[in-house]
Amino acid sequence: MSNVTCEGKIISVIGSGLIGRSWAMVFLSGGYRVKIYDNQQGQAARAADEIRKQLEELQEAHMLRGELSAAEQFALLSSHDDLPQALEGTFFVQECVFEDLEAKRSLFQAVEGHVGESVILSSSTSCLLPSSIFSRVQNRTRCMVSHPVNPPYYVRLVELVPHPETLPMVMDSTYALMTRVGQAPARLRKEVDGFALNRVQYAIIAESWRLVKDGVISVQDIDLVMTEGLGMRYAFIGPMETMHLNAPEGLGDYLRRYREGMRRVLSSFGPVPEFSGQEADAITKEMCELIPNDQQHLSARRERRDQLLMGLAKLKK
């Protein structure tokens, strides 16, 4: 993506933590001018410095996204601790403050006072419903959730979740923007608690947890079931296509063959786990024996995760 098409087009990223910095880098890779804002004095400037370092490291590793060099991308970034200044000239606001309903509501109420009617207001929330977040915004037709997957720079999926009043053209514009900057947007037709990704993820977590808790399998081996089994194909085809391809005559044939077995197994699932108490202590202990929970070990594993995800992203291209 060259910066010719996007010249002068400004995106405001509100919040300069991990997700805010990642979003800024994604938008910079598409050649957009990005204003990053944080209400903590000096925090946005520190975030900009961190972004510069990351862009240079990515360039060094030949993993930088977009057609512009690290220096060209960084030149499109500015940092702000004044909200009106951060919103001046923007056409798209991506909010990335911490997952607190009151904080998000207040922020969007303040943001609306500084932007025109056509500016899209988008939240990075992972679980709060658009109807809750935007309850104090006057014009809710331009409000929506764009939920990235952590880390957004390496994992391309973005869930686009409309507010009940969101106009179709707002969803279309955001879909086009996300596609232009190299993300993979998935549209939800209406809001639902947990959106799509976390609902599917929580179903997998719950059954994995039950199997470990009931002594069926170890923490290490249930992760192996995913990494060397389901995850191998799910990196390229989803559960619906998997069913379609796994029977000689497609999905209808698959359902005829396996629906009874699926229903029998699903009906044997236990209740939703508490994720607390003795079972949580035991599973946490087992996990920490594999990967100790000190910063050194966790940082090394996160770095490994990011490197592997970037390699997979290149392969998928």
UniProtKB/TrEMBL annotation:
EC code: 1.1.1.45
PROSITE patterns noted in UniProt: 3HCDH
Keyword terms: Cytoplasm, NAD, Oxidoreductase, Phosphoprotein
Compartment list: Cytoplasm
Sequence ranges assigned to domain 3-hydroxyacyl-CoA dehydrogenase NAD binding in this UniProt record: 11-190
Annotated positions for site Important for catalytic activity: 147
Assigned GO CC terms: cytoplasm
Keyword Protease: no
Residue ranges occupied by any 3-hydroxyacyl-CoA dehydrogenase C-terminal domain in the UniProt entry: 194-258
Cited SUPFAM superfamilies: 6-phosphogluconate dehydrogenase C-terminal domain-like, NAD(P)-binding Rossmann-fold domains
Pfam families per UniProt: 3HCDH, 3HCDH_N
Entry's Gene Ontology molecular function annotations: L-gulonate 3-dehydrogenase activity; NAD+ binding
One record GO biological process: fatty acid metabolic process
Protein family (similarity comment): Belongs to the 3-hydroxyacyl-CoA dehydrogenase family.
Complex and partners: Homodimer.
Protein name (Swiss-Prot/TrEMBL): L-gulonate 3-dehydrogenase
Annotated organism of origin: Albula goreensis
